[in-house]
Amino acid sequence: MTTKSSSLNKVFADLPVTIFEAMSQAARDNNAINLGQGFPDDPGPEDIRRAAADASLNGYNQYPSMMGIPELRQAIATHYGHWHGLKLDPMSEVMVTSGGTEALTSAILAVVQPGDEVVCFQPVYDSYLPIIRQAGGIPRLVRLEPPGWRLNEDMLKSVFNSKTKAVLFNNPLNPSAVVYPREDLELLARYCQEFDVIAICDEVWEHVTFDEHKHIPLITIPGMRDRTIKVGSAGKIFSLTGWKIGFVCAAPPLLRVAAKVHQFLTFTSAPNLQAAVAYGLGKPDEYFLSMRKDLTQSRDRLTKGLESLGFPVLKSQGTYFLTVDLSPLGLNENDAEFCWRIVKDYKVAAIPVSAFYEKDPVTSVVRFCFAKKDETLDTALERLSDAVRGRKR
Questions:
Q1: Which of 37, 175, 238, 318 has the lowest tally of Cβ within 10 angstroms?
Q2: What mean pLDDT comes out for the span 53-60?
Q3: pLDDT band at 1 (very low <50, low <70, confident <90, very high)
Q4: What angle do helix axes 252-263 and 100-111 make, rounded to 10 degrees?
Q5: Are residues 62 and 38 in the same domain?
Q6: What are the start-end ranges of the H helices in 160-243?
Q7: Residues 330 and 278 in one domain
């Protein structure tokens, strides 16, 4: 049977293979170190993994509540109350999903209707735009630029209007590794309130911040409590990216509709993993602070190594990533060409940040993941030792 391409959903049929999968496949094909896709190379906290194993052997393994097991919903509410001063009703304002991407999809499909405009900031994570378009929404793209990647009045003024239904905001921002300060959040909040816009906030990196940069959830900014859908991810908090346990937090009118979408996407998530995440969220502050300290050391190790090789590194304020701006080097290649060259010739995979732009891309910035063991980073640096030499114009 031959299926006509014209009969398939154009939103998805015309999409290329994601850059993350393409570069990871290139890493496998070239036996390269993968500093492209954002996953650690350690198995994650043993006590949390043991809690999942125990819950699987001795706990309940049938369908849990669609909204998430009660102990996890309570743990999420308690955790955010402690870390952010955000008071949530665990039964009416918290939902568990199968990962952050499903949480975002539930939120987008709950809010966006055909013809609605949705403000998105480039560099933009690759799942946002297809789901907005599947909902019939129209993305309005804002171009952020290095080295600061900051918001400003002119860019918001250019896209917010009477048709704007939602804004999709990632903070800390992947791939540029910025943790947005309060002044940027207050600016965005002002526009959301002026134009009666719902903010869908991808905050999966909320615990991965460095150098005293503090994550401030947009939902805690005055006037945003009832118009924000906050998304979190246990996979990012605990470096267990394969577990796919996400959180949606919102006022009851918003959460009720997001739950109806979730009902027909994945319905529910593995109860043993939920139980383990509930245990993890209750760990003492020292665990989270130690995690940040360890990642800071890895960030600094890769930063120092790249700088010693002549790469201009942009300071990473959060996430598993740091970025390098190639423009001062005078190379005769753009970011994508650079990434394909180093994975083939130097056996190290990275991600071109231009892949996070749909139009008018920044073409000089490359993203590296530093959530790796020291020996992995050191080997990658050794392989890249002459990647710059000989390529200048």
A1: 37
A2: 96
A3: low
A4: 110
A5: no
A6: 182-194, 234-237
A7: no
